[in-house]
């Protein structure tokens, strides 16, 4: 697999990192105000007042994406012989056939996990910052978050590594795939956006694959570097395919991720809604099928023919 080149400025729509001093000053100010309110409540000054707390809402959906239809031009173009759509790197190293079987079951399990609305509220500000910073549709980012760790509810999200011993955290970053791992390539991505004042699982040191903000910002950076933008189209599919890996499971992964994101764009963000089978079929026909065909062709061609 080819390692993405992050040495060129602007490769992933990266702005200049803003200072974090303002965030800390704001946090101190909010803490002081909170303490003052607590004192007033304890002294009875505001004992009879009811404070209404509104639930956090997800970022607005930018545009409803139409269900993809495979065009004649796409059919004619096909996919490269090795099944790759982009000369980028993937987060997960190429798994064995046994690992692929385990991974297929994991993808289904993660997608069926029930998530509480209250749990999601801390992620919405992070998605918004990642979208505005790297120009990647937050629905694509959220769909990958759902696919990788069921919105950070998988048992091993905040400790250890996955079944393959390579990846960890909310977005399952690979920390062992090369001398400079995928995580190391984008680990400083959190510096380019303003960290929310508070969210769950904020680590004491940064960067950390287990910190929700650090991990989600890094994922947005990588998706942007792999060509994803606001549109939920073929470029978004390519980025999702690169995110997982270039194999048959990677095709299924990208189909599900993009189909879920498109469904959300059409019907609204729904934490526990399943992915429509017809949408997965449409996405596969438009983007996944030619890549899978090329992968199959390359596999057949690589099998040694018996000597006559």
Give short descriptive properties of this protein:
2 domains; 308 residues; mainly alpha
Largest sheet: 2 strands, antiparallel
Shape: globular
Going across the biggest sheet, name each strand in turn.
1-2
| Beta fraction | under 5%
Please trace the helix and strand order, writing H or E for each element.
Answer: HHHHHHEEHHHHH
Number of strands: 2
- The computed structural class is mainly alpha
State the helical fraction: 40-55%
Indicate the radius of gyration in whole angstroms.
21 Å
The mean pLDDT is: 80
Specify the number of helices: 11
Q: How many independent structural domains?
A: 2
Distance between the termini: 34 Å
List low-confidence stretches.
45-53, 86-90, 92-96
What does this protein look like?
- This protein has 308 residues and is mainly α.
- It has two domains: 20-53; 56-302, no CATH class.
- It is 48% helix and 1% strand.
- It has helices at 21-42, 72-77, 97-112, 117-120, 124-134, 138-149, 182-186, 212-225, 234-244, 248-267, 277-302; strands spanning 167-168, 173-174.
- Strands 1-2 form a two-stranded antiparallel sheet.
- Strand 1 and strand 2 form a beta hairpin.
- Helix 5 (124-134) packs across helix 6 and helix 9 (234-244) packs across helix 10 (248-267).
- It is globular and about 80 Å long.
- The two termini are 34 Å apart.
